[in-house]
Structures are given as C-alpha cells and as structure tokens.
Design goal:
Number of strands: 11
CATH superfamily of one domain: Amidase signature (AS) domain
Largest sheet: 11 strands, mixed
Structural class: alpha/beta
Distance between the termini: 33 Å
Order of helices and strands: HHEHEHEHEHEEHEHEHHHHEHHEEH
Bound molecules: glutamine
Radius of gyration: 21 Å
C-alpha cells in the first residue's frame, strides 16, 4: 500500500478523505513520508530528527479512525519547526546552545494537534532562533530548496517548507516574526499563513520577538492551511497576549483589494512584478475591484522591525546563560561562564542581533531608538486600521525575488531586505497569507501575499482560495 501513496502530490484534505474511506492508513502515509525522508533528507537537510514514535502514533490514529473518532487531521503526518515544544522531544531552535535541550511540556498548538491525532514525523531545520531568511543561519547546516538545490528554501522556517514541498509530510508548522512562514512558503511553491497576532497561542514556542511572533501552517493548499489553522487557533489563558478571534465571517462578495504602489517602485525584480500583475488581472476578472492605496508609514516597517525585534531578541535570549537552560561552558567565575557559554553557543547572526538589541535599549539611546520605533509602530497600526476602512485586503508580491542562491546575500542588510513585504503585517499584527502564483522560466515558484484586517483570518482564506483556484 505504501508504494502507491504519492505524498508529493497529495494534500491533507484528500488524504483525510482517503483515510476515512479506508483507502489508505495513517501507517501507510507515515511510511511513505519516511521513505521520502530516507531518500532525500541527506541532500536537503530539512529535518533534524525523525521522531522514533511516528509509526506508533500513526497506529493509534488508525485506531481512532476505525472507531469513527477524530477529524480531518487525524492520522496526518506533520513536521514541526524546531522551536515548538513537544514533551520529551529535543527542541534546539537550531542553535548549539540548546543542542540537547528536551521540551518539558507541550506547546498549546501541540496539545491541540495531539488531541486530533495528527502524527508528528520530525523536527524541522530553521535559522537559529528564527533569525534569517534562508536557513543558512542554522547551526546544523543549511536546508536546500527542493526545486533547485543550489538555492535557499527561504527562512527562517526553511526546513518546514522544504519538508512539505519534498513530500516528507503533508503539512508543517512554522513561526513568523517578520515573514518566516510566508517567505519560505513562497520560495517552495506553498501556502503559508501568519494568523492575527494573538489568535494562536505562543505558549511553548521559543520566543524570538514576543510582540511579533506567531505560529502558523505551511501547506500545499489554502484549504489545508485552513484545516491546520482551525485546529491550532484559540484563546489560551496561559499566554497573556492570546485573544479570542471573533471572526468577521468569510463573506468576501464585492471585496476591494488595495495595492500599495509606492512599495513596488524599487528593489523588486522585473519578473516578480510581471507575475504580480498577472495575479492582479485575474482578481480583476473575478470581479474584485482593485485600487491603488497609499501606506506611507508602513514603508518604514523594516526600519522599525530592526529596532524592536533585536530589542526583544536581546531580552528573550538573556535567559540562555548556561545556568538555567541549555549548554554550559565552565569559566573562571560566573561572568566568565556567561561569556564563554554565550560565545560558544550563539552563531554570528544571533550575536549581531543581541548586540544591536542591547544597544537600542541602553541608557541614552532608548528614547532615540526604541521609544521612537514604538511610536512609528503605532502609526503603522493606525494606518492599517484606516486603510482597512477603505479596502478589504492589501495585496503585494510575497518577496522581491524568487529563491536566491546560497551565499548570495552575505551582506546582512541585503538579507534583511528580502522581508520588505512580509514585515508590515507583523508590525501591524494583521493576518497575512502567501499563495503560490506560478513559476519562473527557470521553474522557480512565485507567490503573492494578501493582508487582511485584524481578526479577518477567515476572509483571508476565502480570498486566497479564489486566487488559488484561478491561477
Ligand atoms: N527573516 C526575518 C528575520 O530575519 C524574519 C524572521 C522571522 O519571521 N522569524 O528576522
């Protein structure tokens, strides 16, 4: 039965139907995924660890299905980013400092997925502590793009995206602080969704930048992303920033779509613009009104991001000092231990951001940088609130280029610019989804990104589905 399951061309929705109809089993699905991993993970380096209990859990899921229990995710093999806690499993955030760290509890999202009987196949490679856009910052080597192994899969959730595209699983969880779900999804021809901030609990995720981080799905289709989202969404009394997503419904009849033209003037490849314009035309043909909009403050999102994010990173990572969590390098005294542990444990990008964050938070610079950035953040939030009184969605390309070559963005500022379109949604807290929009002449995937008002996650799925069906 295993040989017949073509994971690469199967989605969650279909697999779930086949499971219910008794055409396949979860064990069969998991075996097919494991076979693909054995064949290709050596080359792609998407999965850091295959979970030894995957088959056992698949068996349990099959029993649930036989008893008529569970839902669409029961028995579905998923890959989990290496910064989300699963009790008893290693979780390293792809850092040396947490190399053998074992999670002592389940993340909120994992609790929910376990309840449905979803099967975790393994943990996915990522940029260290989710900082990066290429997975080149992993302490365990980069992940490769399954469409072209000389290119990056995107990041920081590059391992998650690669796993879905390469048929190592049917769906994956990523985290998105400035685009880390949407950008790798776009580079690997997949759907990636960042929920409204607070809609999905962050409990049990290794925090990067707490006011921006969100967990979300990476899948082959919009419907699949919706299935995972519907399972992991919900208020959590143990995450103070968690909210009840009072859904605004899914009716998008007569929706108006805004395009921030002045974001699209420079630093964007011609073929991306061409592909973007095709998607716009399709939406027009489907009857949606397309209007040009102005978002002058949002242009500063990246500048704001690279002040607020490192400030929160430096604070969040200060707990990794060799005393309470993770690995320790013994020094001559406690300060020496801190220094040696952190120097040995953190990679260069992590150190850069800790230094940057400590600087913007330091006495004398706090007002000039950190406080100022918060003010601009509020202006950006307000700007989105206002624009969503005029339009229902904002549409942009997901990235300014297709997946780039390894080593192409050695200058950190060049790397940071790859998030130019994704970061604003995190700054404003609004939900955003990247949907595949075709392929380049070299066979590399394109993606476009919708942003929707706070709590309009359902509408976001609805409009993305419209485009997906008509690509
Ligand atoms: N690429 C961005 C960064 O390096 C975003 C990361 C993320 O979303 N986790 O910070």
């Amino acid at each position: 039965m295993t040989e017949n399951i073509d994971i690469k061309n199967l989605n969650i929705e279909k697999a779930s139907e086949m499971l219910r109809d008794g055409k396949i089993t979860s064990v069969g699905l998991v075996e097919a995924c494991l076979k693909n991993i054995t064949e290709r993970n050596g080359e792609l380096n998407a999965i850091l660890e295959v979970f030894s209990d995957a088959l056992e859990n698949a068996k349990k899921a099959d029993e649930m299905i036989t008893r008529g229990e569970g839902d669409q995710l029961t028995g579905i093999p998923l890959v989990i980013k290496d910064n989300i806690f699963i009790t008893g499993k290693k979780v390293s955030a792809s850092s040396k400092i947490l190399e053998n760290y074992v999670a002592s509890y389940d993340a909120f999202v994992i609790e929910k997925l376990k309840k449905t009987g979803a099967v975790f196949i393994g943990r996915a490679n990522m940029d260290e502590f989710a900082m990066g856009s290429s997975t080149e910052n992993s302490a365990y080597g980069p992940t490769k793009n399954p469409f072209d192994i000389t290119r990056v899969p995107g990041g920081s959730s590059g391992g998650s995206a690669c796993s879905v595209a390469a048929g190592f699983c049917l769906g994956a969880l990523g985290t998105d602080t400035g685009g880390s779900i949407r950008q790798p999804a776009s580079f690997c021809g997949l759907v990636g969704m960042k929920p409204t901030y607070g809609g999905v609990s962050r409990r049990g995720t290794i925090a990067m930048s707490s006011s921006l981080d969100q967990i979300g799905p990476i899948t082959k289709t919009v419907e699949d992303a919706k299935i995972i989202f519907n399972t992991i969404v919900g208020k959590d009394s143990m995450d103070a920033t968690s909210i009840d997503l009072n859904s605004t419904g899914s009716d998008i009849t007569g929706a108006k779509i805004g395009i921030p033209r002045d974001w699209l003037k420079e630093g964007i490849d011609a073929d991306i613009m061409e592909n973007f314009n095709i998607s716009v035309e399709k939406l027009k043909k489907l009857g949606y009104e397309i209007v040009d909009i102005d978002l002058p403050y949002a242009k500063y999102s990246l500048a704001v991001y690279y002040i607020l994010m490192p400030a929160e990173v430096s604070t969040n990572l200060s707990r990794l000092d060799g005393i309470r969590y993770g690995n320790r390098v013994e020094g001559e005294n406690i300060f020496d231990t801190y220094k040696k542990t952190r120097s040995a444990g953190f990679g260069p990008e992590t150190r850069r951001r800790i230094i940057l964050g400590s600087y913007v938070l330091s006495h004398g610079y706090y007002d000039a940088y950190y406080n100022k950035a918060w003010k601009v953040r509020h202006a950006i939030e307000k700007e989105f609130e206002d624009i969503f009184k005029k339009v229902d969605f904002v549409l942009t390309p997901t990235t300014p280029s297709v997946a780039f070559k390894f080593g192409a963005k050695k200058d950190p500022l060049q790397m940071y610019l790859s998030d130019i379109f994704t970061v604003p949604a995190n700054i404003a807290g609004v939900p955003s989804l990247s949907v595949p929009s075709g392929f380049s002449s070299e066979g590399l995937p394109y993606g476009v990104q919708f942003m929707a008002p706070l709590c309009a996650d359902e509408k976001l799925f609805a409009i993305s589905l419209e485009l997906e069906e008509n690509i």
